[in-house]
Amino acid sequence: MDNISIIGGDLRIVKLADMLNADGYKVHTYGLEQAHMNNEVEKCNSIPELVSKSDVIVSSIPLTSDGTNINTPFSKEKINIAEIAQYLQGKIFIAGRIDEEISSKLQGIDVIDLLKREELTVLNTISTAEGAIQIAMEESTRTLHGSKILVMGFGRVSKILSNMLKGIGADVYCETRTTVNCAWIKAYGYKPILLDELDGQLEQFDIIINTIPHVILNRERLKMLRRDCIIIDIASNPGGVDRNAAKEIGVKLIWALSLPGRVAPITSAEFIKETLENILKDIKKN
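Below the sequence we write its predicted structure tokens.
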């Protein structure tokens, strides 16, 4: 599998194309015509031409933002997922965050979701956490050292993020649903807050960083916050904050999606490349 075709994608995918090319792969692209890449990376003129070049098709992370078209920030052309599915039959299609509705448009195609690969998920937590901290530093009028910061959720990203915040000297609180996690939170040196007990503690925080992809900070809870509290929501759609209510109440909310691609595209491309090569090894074994 020395040929790899790429459809669309952000700067991470552009860097991935260059890295694959430097490693000896023959890389063919479509939907990246405005991107600057190595001269040896071929830019195809059509989807049929691109797909004919390789059995492996790599695309955007996330695959789509509107549920219809592939994300193509380096192209003016809209690439409809359902319309190109006919060309992908018999191919291996690799992209990120492919939900059930999108999968239904890719019937009969061997689809692999990069973001369901454990190695990429874990590696991405690093740049996601760093990106959240960068936003917090830029948006806050306080130093993070000494600030009371609540991290909503206690999954992979939250654990890395909380550790980084503690290293900076922040006063770190972690919200969780379970008493088991409370014990772990204490063991790591943070302060646990059970979700059922959250309401009485919200007014003390300078910054809240949410990692939970369903609304926890509803209108009632947003009213409990200090007006100078900053919320950074890094959870995937729909996020963990009632955005309309936050705007009406006057709470500062930054909804920061796809942080790895925004803050560390080269490192993220290296992580994607490592994961992609693991997938290709698995395919060869089978």
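The chain has two domains: 3-113+265-285, 121-255.
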